[in-house]
Amino acid sequence: MATKVYMEALSPTMEEGRLVTWMKHEGDQVNEGDVLAEVETDKATMELVARGSGVLRKQLLAEGDTANVGTVIGVVAAPDEDVSSIVGDVVAQEASTTAEAPKAKEVARAEESGAGIGKAGAAVAAGGQTEMDQVERAHEHDAVRYEPAENGRVKASPLARRLAEEKGLDLNRVQGSGPGGRVIKRDIEAAREAPVAAPAAAAAPAAAYEEVPLTQMRKTIAKRLTQSIGPIPTFYLTVEVDMSQAVALRQKINERFAKEGIKVSPNDLVIKAVAAALRKHAWVNAAWTGESIRLYNEVHIGVAVAVEEGLITPVVRNADKKGITEIAQEVKELAGRAREKKLKPEEYTGSTFSISNLGMFGITEFTAVINPPEAAILAVGTVEEKVVVEGGEMVVRPRMRLTMSCDHRVIDGATGAQFLQTLKQNLEDPMMIIA
Amino acid sequence: MAVITYRDALNQALAEEMERDPDVFLMGEEVGVYNGAYKVSKGLLDRFGEERVVDTPITELGFAGLGVGAAMTGLRPVIEFMTWNFAYLATDQIFNAAAKMRYMSAGQFKIPVTFRGPSGAALQLAAQHSQALEAMYSHFPGLKVVTPGTPADAKGLLKAAIRDDDPVCFFEGEMLYNLKGEVPDDDDFVIPLGVAEVKRPGADVSIITHGKMINVALQAAAKLEKDGVDAEVLDLRTLRPLDVEAIVATVAKTNRAVLLEEGWPYGGITTTVATLIQELAFDHLDAPVLRVTQADVPMPYAKGLEKLAKPSAELVVEKVNRVLYR
Amino acid sequence: MANTRTKKGATAEHVERRDHPSPATPAQDPNWEREHKPEMSPEEHLQGLSPERLRDIMHDMLLGRRFEEKAAEAYALGKIGGFCHLYIGQEAVAIGAIHALQQGDYVMTAYREHVHALQMGIEPGAVMAELYGKETGCSHGNGGSMHMFSAEKNYLGGHGIVGGQIPLALGVAWKIKYRKEDRVMQVYLGEAAVNQGAFHESLNMAALWKLPLVVIVENNRFGMGTAWERASSLYDISQKANAYAMPSAVADGMDVLDVYRVTRQAVDRARAGEGPTLIEARTYRFVGHSMSDPVSGVYRTKEEVEEEKLNDPIRIYANTLADTNVLSQQQLEAMDEEVKKVAEQAAEFAESSPDPAPEQLYQNVYVDEDVQGQLYLDGRR
Lengths: 435, 326, 381
Known about the structure:
- The complex is a heterotrimer of chains A (435), B (326) and C (381).
- Chain B has 326 residues and is α/β, with parallel strands linked by helices.
- Chain B is 36% helix and 18% strand.
- Chain B contains twelve helices and 14 strands.
- With 381 residues, chain C is α/β, with parallel strands linked by helices.
- Chain C has helices at residues 12-18, 32-36, 42-45, 51-76, 91-98, 114-119, 124-132, 165-178, 197-208, 256-271, 302-309, 313-323, 329-352; strands at residues 106-109, 155-158, 185-190, 213-219, 222-223, 226-227, 248-252, 277-282.
- The longest helix of chain C is centred in the first third of the chain and has 26 residues, at 51-76.
- Chain C is globular, with a radius of gyration of 21 Å.
- Mean pLDDT of chain C is 90; it is low at 1-24.
- Chains B and C meet through α3, α4, α5 and α10 of B and α8 and α9 of C.
């Protein structure tokens, strides 16, 4: 049975994708799971994976061209299968100027015929395959998202729902073998038996948090300040930090781990120090939701990375629980892939606080723009030798200026200042963060 | 344990209960001299005399009400309808008097009357004589409704019905009278009302039914077995009180149910059972509950059409396959 | 007074009568007494009943009247709900007929039943409390105006479906015969119920099996708003018994002693094993069909009702008792005061009684609640 290749939504926000490269040519044998093409999303370049096996009979989108999510961009089918109707449909679809999303049409058609086993845009060929195959497929390919029906509801029998809940299985990730793709008991059982792949959600799960209802005072502050300054009433706090000990520590670490090729940057120390400080200042590790203030229970630090076309913020998850070298390695790896546009969506979403460092460009001090809904961002300047007075004497010390942009709806001046105080202590006496 | 017919099992139950309790009498059309239109009361007139085995005029409303009035003041009448098709004429007495008397009087009277007779379609009797009406009777609080499907159940349940202090509507299968089966000889072989029975245990799907349809269900289960499907057949036996626990238990076991009844689908027994499953066993369901009923038309006369109208093992198999996603 | 009534079948005379749709009551028909009531002196009319018994009958008549007047008042105040069919004007029928019964006999009637219930010995307070829907009512509030019962008093109920009680009464009569008991079953119905199949089916079997059944048709001339002559091809109800080879009689339903006389004969026959009797008691209701029906208007004129009220059974009986020196006007007034007090106390009792407890909702639907399986599928219990 022929399988349509769709432009899939490869990021949570992707509406269209640019086909960078076809990895398979027309006439190539394709096995399910093979990479068919590389697609550039709004965030990264992603791999588009085959949903069925056969021969790539037709490419319907040229390299470099862009297509809306849900558009049929190719056909995988048996070598001798007649695919003219699919191709014809697509041509007709292109010819018509209707604004209706083709995805909806395709889904409707798949459901009418009863042939579609998979759901929505990610229809999966069932022909000749056992249900076990299908279930396993669902787990092998993390990127495969069995999207719920049009109304966002997964069709599942009541029993399957109960079993899934008991087993902690996400019904969205179990392919249904019942009519219209209904998930039934046997699907859950098969899913349980199948090796559980790393739980790679399409989008990073939100960090655990505590929801604090807005007091009247907070509401008023939020309203007034927003009227005064814009959607995010931001204010800025700057502190200068003596980096003597931090620099010494960094040097020591780098010497110690030189053999392993580990190199810690000043920014890595800042990440660690910030993470530790956030643990003590919940109101800075927070977000404005409109209805409440969200105090995160986990610390995920977004680290702004400059890339060719702009900026992306990979996330160091649970940075407070990671060692400095671990953070250093992770940042290096993430930044590298960010520059190659190879980050997965879950790697650049879900941060609770962000850091932007322009020190490498010699910038001594700047203000960064908050990444909503986070409540704050820290702008890190360069470390420079400065003359300071210590105990009445003039000495030269490595100094660094940190400027935090704060969302005043969440953070008040004193709250921010106290956080920076802690952060300053953490950096000036790094034993605080490694002990 | 003797192998006897459904008819003889009923006859035994009547005789034993009349022997046991002088307040029990049998009344109806042709029950005496004629020995019963279906010979269920054969020999009872000779044995118990015309005061206790009473031929009536054709006057269903009148003698049904007589039964209620006599029960109200202490007797234990068994009122036979030649078939339940004729009991429409008596329904004011059954629905308005028998079912409500105890409640209206706040418990001052009990109505230990048993209304019984053959029910359902036989062969080519056409629309007015081929009706399975137990759902209509089950609608009324105050009535109990019993539908035996085997000779043993016929005996044990009729004895329970006669001994019961509430009005019981007892639906015999017109096509079952010659059905043979093992029946205990015991005078006190009484099957309590409200207890369903698994007539065939199975693991894959539950066929829930009652009365004559038990046999259709068992036929379907035998066919399914050849296909490797292990069907459980639950015989409700009593429709009111209804063994809801047994319904939930079988659905919890197999996660799938096909409901079968001889009567029509609108407001049928299957409607009620499906609702209960949905209310009480929702999380056990792995498939929608499907039903097999009589075609939703009056029963036609022509042989071929009649066959089409009746529920069949083939229809049950088809529905079972659907709930099994086969 | 129009002399238009007939007691014959569908004759030319009968058709003629139908052209004058206001048939006479006994009092309007100078021939009536001659044909139905034997010539009797006032003393003979007392039928040898003791003065105490005669006074009891008057007491019962007055109590029935005052009780229902009280009920009408309570209904107007919204203390009684639903249908409420009053018996005012018809008291002589139930009271005369029930006085012809013995201890152990049974009575069953339709829905115009408060006086029958009282006459069978149910406490006025329990009858009134039932009207109020209270826990102390004779049906504990489950029945109301139309469904009063007392197993203890052999009062087998008020029944709400026209004619529905007749087969039930047949069954009770069957039981009496089956058990060879010395009892009689007396069943009441309105004239409109005569057209129901249940009436004919029951009369047939009662006569066929010679059951101890006394069937009393209270002909108040209107089935709700339909005059009897507009509903029956044969005016004379007593003649319907002929179809079942059953004896029948007509009683003056406004004369309690005449009702007693006729019923007594029927009861004696039944008790003697001679089978059932059909009695037509010709009477008149002074009130509407129910509390929601005006006394007059659409189907009868105010004048007609006022004229009939001249034959008030209580006044007729009071005159008889005065003429025979059984009860003086003074005694009558004292008796009236007494029953007024009883009616008043009944209302007070009803008023102060508790409502039925919520648990009662599911009680007594079945005798045997202790069954396996579920009796109630409403998911509330």
